[in-house]
Write a structure and sequence with these properties.
Elements: H1 22-25, E1 32-38, H2 52-61, E2 66-68, E3 74-76, E4 79-85, E5 90-95, H3 109-121, E6 133-140, E7 143-148, H4 155-162, H5 168-171, E8 193-199, E9 203-208, E10 223-229, H6 232-241, E11 246-247, H7 253-260, E12 265-268, E13 275-280, H8 291-298, H9 303-310, E14 315-317, H10 341-350, E15 363-364, E16 367-368, E17 370-376, H11 380-395, E18 399-405, H12 407-417, E19 422-427, H13 433-441, H14 455-465, H15 470-487, E20 490-492, E21 494-496, E22 500-503, E23 506-507, H16 522-527, E24 529-530
Parallel strand pairs: 1-10, 1-11, 17-18, 17-19
Antiparallel strand pairs: 2-3, 4-5, 5-7, 6-7, 8-9, 9-10, 12-22, 13-19, 13-20, 14-21, 15-16, 23-24
Helix pairs in contact: 8-10, 9-11, 13-14, 14-15
Length: 534
């Protein structure tokens, strides 16, 4: 790999499942790894959803082009080499040879070209990773040339970390990809494991792929069973009883405490490049569309208290739109309005809100200032966070109605139907922030769930993304942050300290700094061995 730098190298540090059926009974053949999921997988159409549980399954079945190692370095797997030319405007990408899709069709340059064009055409997840591409050309069966409209130093890092290639032969005739769940026909993946059986809400079973290239590392695991659990308590119990070996769920300190001094378990605590945030949907609520209301709510976020009580101290407050781990991009201290209930009251009063009936909630134009905030009810840290925010907001005259819902319903409402007024959620990882910022706020970005648009934010986020050097991206990032903290389309709350737990059945876990997959990334799965095995 040439002429690339990762975000850490830049100095920016970072109830039990339903009864098992016959398929699970058979899963004891060979070497089996059992993984617990908190909630179900939203869809097996990985390109239509930003689902952390789907991302966990992808690590074995449909891996991304690259990965992040324990030190935060973005490295390649499905890509053998990258040549960067013309001051970061031309990238020549050579794929790793001898990789086949699970149906036996070779993985080639045609698949990578198809992926880059299809994601943009249909505005699918990670579409903005290729929005700067001016042209793409096949050099040979394993080599692709990307020419960019403007220099983009982070082009390959974000492509490798985020993008899973699409099998052209399966998807080229699909004209409405957002309506395809891919549940009926399964998944035509290319990873070290094949999806062989699943039952929604209960389990997903993958088996070792015999065609996986030995040069990339052959797994000793024969089968992985992903078991679905409805809440934290049942997940922790399953780990204690040995029903699962590990989980993708990050633990709170109180959850991890019962495992820390037990030699039968291991604790992994990697850094987190992700954070929690509040999102506003002005298309569903006139109050969410009012910047004065968003600013007043910003004044009601007591981050130190939330970290102390909701995260049990395992995290840090996030005062601006960029995580504090990206030190070069927070030096300007561009921050949201500080916690101040009296300031929140003044903002509302100046905007024409008043409590005319004495019930403690302000009104405007005869309507009470009331907003619904949805979140995944199975997450203890989310539940505690929103309850603290609700109580402080009420002191300012704002009524927040909490909507704890099943994560399947949550994911559909967040990314498909957009049926929410406010939401509370956590990004698993924001990697190469000067590039990824546009993926959060860009006009056509999949992750811009509410469709918020500000022309200045669009300009500055795009300028930051299309920078020839990291140094050149700092000024536009500062300007983009100023718009975010002024307009408040989203409101950051905390950065978690990640804690993952596994039993000692296996040696060789390679935890990565992301709550997307913790200690069970593809590289980790390839490295695992039964304890004591040579």
């Amino acid at each position: 790999m040439t002429n690339r730098r990762s975000f850490m190298e830049m100095g920016m540090a970072l109830t039990a499942a339903a009864a098992a059926g016959p398929a699970l009974a058979q899963s004891k053949r060979g070497v089996v790894l059992n993984i617990g999921l908190l909630g179900d997988i939203q869809t097996l159409n990985f390109w239509s959803s930003n689902d952390v549980n789907a991302a966990v399954l992808q690590e074995s079945v449909m891996p991304r082009l690259g990965y992040m190692d324990a030190n935060g370095n973005v490295k390649s797997t499905l890509i053998r080499n990258v040549e960067v030319k013309d001051k970061a405007t031309t990238f020549i990408v050579t794929l790793t040879p001898d990789i086949k899709w699970h149906d036996g069709v070779p993985f080639t340059a045609d698949d990578l070209i198809f992926t880059s064009e299809y994601l943009v055409k249909h505005k699918l997840f990670q579409n903005t990773r290729f929005s700067n591409v001016a042209s793409v050309r096949k050099i040979d069966n394993l080599t692709v040339e990307f020419k960019l409209k403007a220099a983009q130093v982070g082009f390959m890092d974000v492509m490798m970390f985020w993008v899973s290639p699409m099998p052209k032969h399966r998807w080229e005739k699909v004209t409405a990809p957002m309506t395809l769940n891919d549940d009926a026909g399964g998944v035509t993946g290319l990873g070290p494991f094949k999806l062989t059986d699943w039952k929604k809400g209960q389990y997903y079973i993958v088996e070792r792929n015999p065609d996986w290239p030995a040069a990339l590392g052959r797994p000793v695991i024969d089968r992985i069973v992903y078991r679905v659990y409805k809440d934290d308590n049942s997940l922790v119990l399953a780990l204690r009883t040995g029903e699962i070996d590990t989980t993708s769920r990050q633990f709170l300190p109180s959850m991890a405490a019962q495992f820390r001094k037990n030699p039968k378990y291991r604790i992994f605590e990697p850094a987190s490049p992700g954070y929690s945030y509040i999102g506003f949907n002005g298309k569903k609520s006139e109050f969410a569309a009012d910047v004065a209301v968003r600013r007043a709510i910003a004044h009601c976020i007591d981050r130190p208290k939330i970290v102390r009580l909701a995260l049990e101290g395992a995290g840090v407050p996030m005062n601006g739109a960029v995580s504090p781990i990206y030190k070069d991009f927070v030096k300007s201290k561009i921050e949201y309005p500080a916690f101040n209930i009296e300031a929140a009251k003044k903002v509302l009063k100046d905007a024409g809100y008043a409590d005319t009936d004495g019930d403690g909630i302000v009104e405007k134009n005869g309507k009470k200032l009331s907003l619904k905030m949805m979140y995944e009810g199975s997450r203890t840290d989310y539940d505690k966070s929103v309850r603290i925010i609700r109580e402080d907001a009420r002191q300012a005259g704002i009524e927040l109605l909490l909507e704890p819902i099943d994560r399947q319903v949550y994911m559909d409402r967040q990314s498909k139907t957009k049926e929410y007024e406010m939401l509370f959620v956590q990004w698993g990882a924001i990697v190469v922030v000067y590039d990824s910022f546009y993926n959060l706020y860009g006009k056509e970005a999949f992750l811009n769930y509410s469709g918020f648009f500000d022309p200045d934010l669009e300009k500055w986020a795009l300028d930051a993304k299309e920078s020839a050097t990291i140094a050149e991206s700092i000024k536009p990032m500062d300007e983009a942050q100023k718009v975010v903290v002024n307009q408040i389309p989203t409101l950051s709350v905390w950065v978690p300290n990640l804690i993952f737990v596994a039993n000692t059945k296996f040696d060789g876990y390679l935890p990565n700094p992301s709550s997307n997959n913790g200690a069970i990334s593809m590289i980790s799965l390839l490295n695992l061995k039964l304890r004591g095995a040579k």
